[in-house]
Amino acid sequence: MIWWRNYSYNIAMLRRLIALVLLLAAVPAAAQIPHRKGGQLIVDGKPFLVLGGELGNSSASDRAWLGPRWARMKAMHLNTVLAPVSWELIEPREGAYDWTSIDWLIADARANDMRLVLLWFGAWKNSMSTYVPAWVKRDRRRFPYALAADGKPQEILSAFAPATRDADARAFGALMKHLRETDDRHTVIMVQVENEMGFLPDAREHGPLADAALAKTGGDEEAFTALAYARYTEAVAKAGKREYPLPMYVNGAQAFPGRKPGQYPAGGPLAHLWEQWKRGAPSIDFLAPDVYFPSFDAIAAGYARPGNPLFVPEANYAGDVRAVPNAMLVFGKYRGFGFSPFSIEGLEGPGAERLGGLYAMLDNLAPVILAAQAEGRIMGFGAPATPDGKIDESVQKTELGTARFTVTFIDPWTARDKQAPGEHGGLIIWLGGEDYLVAGRGITVTVEPVDGKGRFGLEQVDEGRFVDGKWVAGRRLNGDQTHQGRHIRLPPDAFGIQRVRLYRY
Q: pTM for this structure?
């Protein structure tokens, strides 16, 4: 009768599974918690493009200070703010939680129609342990600091101390439980676990616990460090996901080429340590790069891989003049779902105008971008740079549908000394058939048939925008603006969207 009991059990489990699927299908989209589906972030049942900005490290600790800056961020068309949550503020005494800083942050984000990504400043922030509670800092027996190779203690908690890991995980779990119980409108859409982990000033931490662990395993010191940080992070993330399974990621401080581990935060979630991080922290949804070097394209390429959608939580400082091409690369070339410059609350003047124009254009295109990403109908363009800042202004080519596009970053109608090609960038989106969208600023595009038969002309080129999901055309640009049909041009002094229909002759 064993076979019959197994058969009955399987039937019962199948019925439960069917009931669960039907229940989830019946849940309104607004009640679904944010989650990852393939390479996209799903919020309120729909794919979501994060047009973000990250606050400075201390900006979310004072409501009155941050208050007047929400309007500035809203004026730049942000839809998401990345905000630190520090362990010391939510657990000032062990086991006693204070949710004041969380609750007002959520309330103010809602009041300004924005989403939040919370950054858990737990055991580490920029490798150091300065945001932990005083009761952790003062108890070196329970929560030991790591030692450098010379035996000197660093203000860096050891990744090998079980008491530290467990206390960090309990606090993070309590935070996620509080979000589950209070954030019924899903204002918080993702959580970053720790911040820029990695050891300094050596390739690994030293001390009795770390030395004993290395003696057991051996091998490369930085790989050893990466696996230790990943396993620690897994314990924290797993505790949080048990309470509320929002998407969770870790961010990595990048290494300038030629520097050795310890000259950058060794063992952090970097592209060359992918295997250790994915093996050690399976509860983490993806690894994300913080990019402060000019070589944005090359760094992004290391993270945009199958199973790891690209999200850039710190895309240089908020005033970076290369925000435009870099965002085009994230959303178009690498089909990522989020872009977020750092220290956003202080951005003013030309930088705010530039980012605001960029985000206004991307917000208008967001549904089209997201659909095109899912179906492989989009490409992004920006002149790449070397780590030392040298710009490669070479033309770039791509094929979409039956058309091959050539993109240049030097505007033909602007004096060379009056333009900066390294700040130009754009998107091309195939709408199907002979219809395309070209968006951005400072790019000039020519087109030819992929099959080499005949030539492509521009039947019509209209500038415009989407209103309630429908294209609304403005000027028809079939004259001087396209050089009498020779090219598609987006001037460098303004953001634009143009709808193009090709014809063959």
A: 0.93
